[in-house]
Amino acid sequence: MAKKNQKIQSVKEKSVLSDYDFLSKLIVGIGEVSKITGIPQRQLRYWQEKGLIQTADEAGSTIRRFDYLEIKKILLIKELLEEGYTLEAAAKKIEKRMESINSAFKKLKKLS
DNA sequence: ATTCTTACA
DNA sequence: TGTAAGGA
Q1: Model's pTM, two decimal places?
Q2: Which of A11, A48, A91, A98 has the fewest Cβ atoms within 10 Å of its own Cβ atom?
Q3: Residues 24-63 of A with CB under 7 A from strand C
Q4: Closest of A26, A59, A65 to residue A44, by C-alpha
Q5: For domain A2-111, is the CATH number 1.10.1660.10?
């Protein structure tokens, strides 16, 4: 019985670790992002041109790739737009939010 | 199969 | 903004 619990515990730990792993390595194309966020590709490209969202620029490729943080940003911007915000206003608000979140996690990262 | 740019409705 | 054309 003790052995069984041990096994369950290790599975739990692994799933937590791979969860983090998954999110930090997740990088998807514009098609997927569009599909999961509901934002048309046309608009995602437009936002990116305006510099409101970033793309993982891999050397020598014109193809846009979005990581976990950008997808999160996109979702946040989408919500604000639905609440009546201007694209610019939404972007500014998100920018500040991301800044404070990132600085908070940098502090935590130093402790590990 | 996917994404990219350009351009016109 | 949506969509179609034409190339990578």
Answers
A1: 0.80
A2: A11
A3: 40-43, 46
A4: A65
A5: yes
